[in-house]
Amino acid sequence: MLVLVTGMKREARIVARGNQVVVAGGDNSSLADRIAAVAANARALLSIGIGGGLAPDLPVGAAVIATEIVWGGERLPTNAVWQGALAKCLPGAIAGAIAGSNRIVVTPAAKSVLHRETGALLADMESHIASRFAAERKLPFAALRVISDDATHSLPPAVHGAIGPDGDLRLGAVLRSIAGNPAQIPELIRTARRTDRAMVELRRCSDLLGNGFACPYLA
After folding, report:
1. CATH number of the domain bearing residue 146
2. Which percentage of the chain shows pLDDT scores above 90?
3. In this model, does residue 67 exceed pLDDT 90?
4. Does residue 72 carry a pLDDT above 90?
5. Rounded to whole angstroms, what are the CA distances from 136 to 78, 104, 158, 205, 215?
6. What is the number of domains present in the chain?
């Protein structure tokens, strides 16, 4: 069985393809327990979805195949064979490190610092937890993420709390944030459009990879 780890239900709907999907939601503190609850028969673990760009030369929609996951002082390598299989199916994707974060990296300044400290191309809130889980269980692990906000893009305040614990959009929270700060509306619209672009690329990658996501350990 292949277990997929995403941040949002929107991502999960794109990539599920009959696999077991664990959705972290806006709070990743219980993600390891959620993975453990379904991973008894897992043969491999894949972190997949969107993330924030850290490298200044990578645009929205760029697909990143992780070579390693960086978190704190840890650098956990991804499975080299699976990484190569993903790259073969997705020749336009970029290989590089992905950084873990327990909260959204909002500002260009914060993205620049994280890029400088880690060398990572992209950051997300799930891959570091999933990779550590896989390492502890000795499961093959890979990560594929698409940039939804580039290194120069500052996210609007409404993104904080926009995704609920179940991974669904909390529309009420977004509307309350807009009511308190209407000036963020243009940037919020731009953020939504960039996210849509990333989701289109995520679907394209998913279609190219097929149900098994090029995993060589499922047979």
Report:
1. 3.40.50.1580
2. 85
3. yes
4. no
5. 13, 25, 36, 28, 19
6. 1
Domain assignment present for residue 134? The answer is yes
Rounded Cα–Cα distance for residues 102 and 110 (Å): 13
Tokens of 73: 């002082």
What are the residues whose beta carbons fall under 8 Å from the beta carbon of 73, sequence distance 6 or more?
Answer: none
Mode of pairing for the β-strands spanning 74-77 and 63-71: antiparallel
In a domain, 218, yes or no: no
Is the model's pLDDT at 161 over the cut of 90? no
Which residues have C-beta within 8 Å of that of residue 46, sequence separation ≥ 6?
A: 2, 3, 4, 5, 141, 142, 143, 144, 213, 215
Cβ pair 56, 40 in contact under 8 A: no
Q: Could you tell me the CA-to-CA distances from 4 to 23, 67, 85, 104, 137 in Å, in that order?
A: 9, 17, 17, 20, 15
Q: How many separate helices (H) and strands (E) can be counted in the chain?
A: 7, 8
Domain that holds residue 79: 2-209
